[in-house]
Amino acid sequence: MLEIKNLHASVEDKEILRGINLVVNPGEVHAIMGPNGSGKSTLASVIAGKEEFEVTQGSVSLDGEDLEDVAPEERAHKGVFLSFQYPVEIPGVSVTNFMKTAINESRKGRGLEDMPANEMLKLIREKSELLEIDRKFLSRSLNEGFSGGEKKRNEIFQMAMLAPKVAILDETDSGLDIDALRIVANGVNKLKSKDNAVIVITHYQRLLDYIVPDFVHVLHNGKIVKSGCKELAMELEEKGYDWIKQEAAV
Amino acid sequence: MRQADAVNRELFTENDKNMSLKEKLISSFMAFENNVDVDHPVHDVRTEAIKNFEAKGFPTKKEEAWKYTSLNSLQKVDFSIFPKQQNALEYKDVKKYFLHEIDSYKIVFIDGIYSSFLSETTHDGVDICLMSSALTKPMYKQIIDVYFNKVASKDESLTTLNTAFSREGAYIYIPKNKMPKKPVEIVHFATGNEAALMLQPRNLIIVEENAEVQIIERHQSLTSNEVLTNSVTEIFAAESAIVDYYKIQNDNATASLIDNTYINQKGKSNVNVHTFSFGGKLTRNNLNFFQNGEYMDSTMKGITILGEKQHVDHHTLVHHIEPNCESHQDYKGIYGENSTGVFNGKIIVDKIAQKTNAFQQNNNILISDKATINTKPQLEIFADDVKCSHGCTIGQLDEDAMFYLQSRGIPRREAQALLMYAFANNVLESVRIPELKTRINKLIAKKLGVNLGFDL
């Protein structure tokens, strides 16, 4: 479904991704781990289409279509979703109104009519219950004054609303206490199906106790230096990243 | 000889296209005198004022306060100083310019002439009526003696020009402990049924001790002919009075406004002025607060959203004269296309005005390479125990925020609008008439040119 081939990307002439290869099939959960500065968040942003990064070589394609010239919003319409490490605050726009705008713009992008109001309300109710989100929370300004946990829960709520094909969770576990982590992970697991895929980007193994990956990849210096199954994550947790760095240096 | 001169001048009035606007105004003053009571003490004030204007003339860009706003092209327009005929409007045709969702008192003028048909005034415990009555009827004489032209500048040339021609406008008097049942709308329509028109409304608002009033003011041109409004409003807020004043400036591309507002506040009073500048050819807001007392609060908020070749110049002045007072200024601007903006915020804290808290913020977004904004805080602080903060920013929209919205499927243009909306919106929090807040919300969305996908 998502295919990344020899992906090189730079920002201001500084190369951050140096040849990434990754294939994600429907129904799979991939974890991407790695030390700080290895390029994890850059990879997430490049997949979602952030223009600040220049793809200098290689490609990202979704269902066989090269995404090179596809704008971020169009990628979203095609089913790419990025849960942000640092969601942006938008004062004066409530979570509900933001979601309505996002859903209807996405539908417009796919040539569909606006979602009828009653259907929208039903969907909002259903998905907010899934993430144990309070009704009052939905009328607050988007991310404004939200705690770290609320922001992340709200990201997964948006994911639930938009029902993407490929969801990339960028450090979704950072800033979460154990209860919030459980709620978020439970939400992600309930949204999983044989038709969609999740890429979990994380520094720690903690989240992977709840969202169990089929594959674990270690990113170092802009390259995937090791891939394995979930045991690799535990090994990393135990031994840290130094041995990977040494292995990669050899 | 003098008499012949006067006759000549009058003959030329409104006819000689080569006459400068200043000359035309000065010669019109004599025609004006034929229609007012020259024996009334107010006329001495007018005569003094026209002399001042004659000496000073229109301000030029050489003056620091007018560095970025030129009145040159306006002075080339052949304005009628007095409307030649009385024009009528149907309520249904102008309903949208009123806050028709709620009931309100209305003081409405068409081409500078009071329209009793569109107005709803009152004398029931409060006076919400006409300046022309207040300036002529004996029952108001005492109040006029005390308040008229007492806070307005006696040497600022455009203010003195207005003073010289002061005859009509809104007069509002709220006695002690009173509050009118509903807000007051002051609306000036220009029909332009005859050529270009210059209007000079003069408002006087007196809110006595512990009284309260909400006022919405609007100038609306209904013509493509040029309109120039040079307005002066004097507001007196006594002890513990509350005044909410909302200025809606969403006029068309041939209408210009010079708004001079002077506010005299006494102890524990609270005066809030919101200025929504969404359109008009040239708009100059001179907003002046004088704090004559302790423990009071003055709030100035503004949202400016401009496009085309529109120009807005906000000049604020807060003079902290006594201790323990606060002032809050928050102006947000969004400038597109070839529009230009100015914010100049002056705060004076006198030596005895200790424990003053003065805040000033001016944030701007330029969404076009050709738009410009000049912003300047001017602080003159003579007391040593004060908190003053000021900040101004000029920027583009945050790209990280744009990416966030786009990644949720919201196209760039809509994402831009949503962010601008969010940027301007928090200024509205202090609007205390919910229907007005909704209305301004909608205006902002409309001004930003997009459907945000939800009802605001």
Structural commentary:
The complex is a heterodimer of chains A (250) and B (456). Chain A has a single domain, classed as P-loop containing nucleotide triphosphate hydrolases (Rossmann fold). Chain A is 38% helix and 28% strand. Chain A has helices spanning 40-48, 72-78, 95-109, 117-130, 135-138, 148-162, 178-191, 230-239, 242-249, and strands at residues 2-11, 14-24, 29-33, 54-62, 65-66, 80-83, 90-94, 141-142, 166-170, 197-202, 215-220, 223-228. In chain A, the strands form 3 sheets. In chain A, strands 6-9-10-3-11-12 form a 6-stranded mixed sheet, with helices on both faces. Chain A has a 4-stranded antiparallel sheet with strand order 2-1-4-5, covered by helices on one side. In chain A, strands 7-8 form a two-stranded antiparallel sheet. In chain A, β1 (2-11) and β2 form a beta hairpin. By secondary structure, chain A is of the alpha/beta class. Chain A contains 9 helices and 12 strands. In chain B, β1 and β2 (113-114) form a beta hairpin. With 456 residues, chain B is of the alpha/beta class. Chain B has 11 helices and 20 strands. Chain B folds into 2 domains: 88-403, no CATH class; 404-456, no CATH class. In chain B, the strands form 2 sheets. A 10-stranded mixed sheet of chain B has the order 2-1-5-8-10-12-14-16-18-20, covered by helices on one side. In chain B, strands 3, 4, 6, 7, 9, 11, 13, 15, 17 and 19 form a 10-stranded mixed sheet that branches. Chain B has helices at 2-12, 21-33, 41-56, 72-75, 91-94, 131-136, 141-147, 157-164, 399-406, 412-425, 434-447; strands spanning 105-110, 113-114, 127-130, 170-174, 184-190, 197-199, 202-207, 212-221, 227-237, 242-250, 255-265, 270-279, 282-291, 297-306, 311-320, 326-335, 340-349, 357-366, 372-381, 387-395. The A-B interface holds A 45, 48-52, 71-73, 75-77, 80-82, 84, 87-88, 90-93, 96-98, 100-106, 109, 114, 141, 158, 162 and B 398-401, 403-412, 414-415, 418-419, 421-422, 425-426, 428, 452-454. Chain A: Keywords: ATP-binding, Nucleotide-binding. Chain A: Residues 2-246 form the ABC transporter domain. Chain A: Belongs to the ABC transporter superfamily. Ycf16 family. Chain A: Pfam families: ABC_tran (PF00005). Chain A: This is ATP-dependent transporter SufC.
